Amino acid sequence: MSSLPSHNKDPSRIRKQLSDSCPASSTATTKSLRHERLSRLGSSGSSDVSNDTSTNHAESYFLRRENRLSARKKAEEEIANNDYKKMYEKALATNQRLKSRLETSKQELTMIQDQLERAQGGQNECGANVLEAEKKIKAELKTENQRLKDENGALIRVITKLSK
Question: What is the pLDDT of residues 6-28, one digit of tens each?
Fold first, then answer.
């Protein structure tokens, strides 16, 4: 490797190569690097300017870092918002489905209640018919019972006359 700087290499690599190749001339290389940085910025001047450039590099680094972080946060928020939107839409669809099921259940309940009332009303009519039939049967049984009692009494009298 040559110790001469090339234009397509990173300045930090150039600095490292120059300082590794010639430790005695590190001061000269540092000054040439500063001059190179200053010429890139379009300024010429003292060591205060070199401090400003290093500050500018640090500031630009932190600005780029903040921009990347804010972009990442925005992307995460968009993903989160999309997730919330999807969850909201899913919950809304579930609610609609449950509302329709509730409505059909209510309709079925009213139909069943109507059928129950009709059946009870029919039972009342049937019950009234059964009650009347039972009353008739009861009256017939009472008359039959009375006839049997009378017959029994007559038979007792006949037996007592015969036994005397």
Answer: 455 555 555 555 445 444 445 55
